[in-house]
Amino acid sequence: MSQLETAMAILMQSFDKYACAEGNKCTLTKSELKTLMETELPSFMKNAKDQGEVDKLMKALDHNGDGEVDFNEFVVLVAAMTCVCHDRCPKK
């Protein structure tokens, strides 16, 4: 597999690993999302001031309002964080 294909596979595996901890295996609950972020994105989480930050993130990601984050919503998070971290291009 190419590097991009490998990255995509890791993204899917990471989502599945945390989504299967509780309830629906196709979505992340707030606690599953928090665990994923604390484990897989620790440098982002150390900047979160309190639990309210996770609540805000969950609300922003949950586009369909079902109280959980599905894979499509999760990919939006990863893409947005990737854009924030990518500093090679000038900001518009």
UniProtKB/TrEMBL annotation:
Biological-process GO terms, alphabetical: endothelial cell migration
Full protein name: Protein S100
Domain EF-hand, first and last residues per copy: 49-84
Keywords carried by this UniProt record: Calcium, Metal-binding, Repeat
CDD domains assigned: S-100
InterPro entries in UniProt: EF-hand-dom_pair (IPR011992), EF_Hand_1_Ca_BS (IPR018247), EF_hand_dom (IPR002048), S-100_dom (IPR034325), S100/CaBP7/8-like_CS (IPR001751), S100_Ca-bd_sub (IPR013787)
UniProt xrefs under Pfam families: EF-hand_1, S_100
GO cellular component labels: cytoplasm; extracellular exosome
GO MF term set: calcium ion binding; calcium-dependent protein binding; transition metal ion binding
Organism field: Synaphobranchus kaupii
